[in-house]
Design goal:
The chain is α+β, with helices and mostly antiparallel strands. The chain contains 14 helices and seven strands.
């Protein structure tokens, strides 16, 4: 069979399968470009099942681009709290403001213009353009890469620039005119539900007879992956600093990791330094105050994408000094009952849970 005919048969089989088996998801019940944009950003590096409640809560609070653009970034981050990769929320907010200022409050249809918006790259632009605006643009995310590498039995690392570009071209060739939105979602759905990273469900795959990897019994070996290096592990110590019944919190710099989120002052333990010394030093460097470190609250183990932490939290008593944002963007004394109004990283939320219960 000629390659063009083969690809056409694959597309037809995928579309038929998707239209019969697609999961019912809130962003698939609408053609509103704003809803589709929000869902695509949330779905980056996050499972569908985790996204659904966050999407519903976020849309209820920010039902339009205009409402999102006018919102305070602290409120946006609070509604994103727990989803992780907080730069996505900051970029959403910045993009909403840019859309209202430069595009009359409407998402642009063109992939080139979409990519000028903060947080929108090649994949997201293609997803929005195809799903929301019926533009014949391909997508290439982790699920699609896995499907295509197996379907074509590509036995080289798909992260290589030349191979990656080949996959983009293949994804484009699969699109039947006027059906990019459904075809792209079919590829992503197949990767999420059938063509799984481990133990793919080949017997139920709608394109099994066209899969070269299956034919050669290589489906479990593809796509080729780079060996992961062990994640570095850091010891962190923070202080819950009390003064007259209130607690000191500070906001992380907007342009760094977990930017814009609030936390308790503290940081990495240095070699030959005790945890108590770490809390005292970091609190002085971060907010300019002297403290007495008291009883330990809890120890939290948490993994980020590139490192792990062991976080030790202590009750502390303010001794002297006026808190200043030396190593952060802002400082505040708050009542314990007010902590739930601020967006904290997950590890800090676990400390708060110990404090309040």
């Amino acid at each position: 069979m000629k390659q063009n005919d083969r690809l056409r048969h694959i597309s037809t089989a995928l579309l038929d399968w998707y239209r019969a088996n697609a999961r019912i998801l809130p962003w698939r019940q609408t053609r509103d470009p704003y809803y589709i944009w929000i869902s695509e950003i949330m779905l980056q590096q996050t499972r569908v099942t985790a996204v659904v409640p966050y999407f519903q809560r976020f849309i209820a609070r920010f039902p339009t681009i205009q409402v999102l653009a006018k919102a305070n970034i602290d409120v946006v981050l609070k509604f994103w709290e727990g989803l992780g990769y907080y730069s996505r929320a900051r970029n959403l907010h910045a993009a909403a403001r840019k859309i209202c200022k430069e595009y009359g409050g409407n998402l642009p249809h063109d992939v080139v213009q979409l990519r000028f918006l903060p947080g929108i790259g090649r994949y997201t632009a293609g997803a929005i353009a195809s799903i929301a605006f019926d533009t014949d643009e391909p997508v290439l995310d982790g699920n699609v890469i896995r499907v295509l590498c197996r379907m074509e039995c590509i036995e080289v690392n798909p992260k290589q620039a030349e191979v990656h570009e080949k996959l983009w071209k293949l994804a484009r060739r699969l699109i039947p005119k006027g059906q990019a939105g459904d075809l792209n979602q079919a590829l992503m759905e197949l990767g999420a539900m059938v063509c799984l990273p481990k133990n793919p469900q080949c017997l139920t795959c709608p394109v099994q007879k066209y899969c070269v990897a299956l034919r050669n019994q290589k489906q479990n070996a593809l796509p080729i992956r780079q060996k992961k290096k062990p994640l570095p592990r850091y010891t962190i110590a923070v202080g819950v600093v009390w003064k007259n019944g209130r607690i000191l919190i500070d906001r992380r710099p907007a342009n760094g990791m977990l930017g814009g989120l609030w936390e308790f002052p503290g940081g990495k333990k240095k070699k030959n330094e005790s945890l108590i010394q770490t809390v005292q030093r970091e609190t002085l460097e971060e907010v300019g105050i002297h403290i007495e470190v008291q009883k330990k609250i809890t120890t939290v183990h948490h993994a980020y994408s590139h490192f792990q932490i062991c976080l030790h939290a202590f009750h502390c008593r303010w001794i002297s000094g006026k808190p200043e944002p030396w190593g952060c963007d802002q400082v505040k004394w708050v009542w314990p009952s007010q902590l739930d109004k601020y967006a904290f990283p997950t590890a800090n939320q676990k400390i708060i849970a110990k404090l309040l219960h």
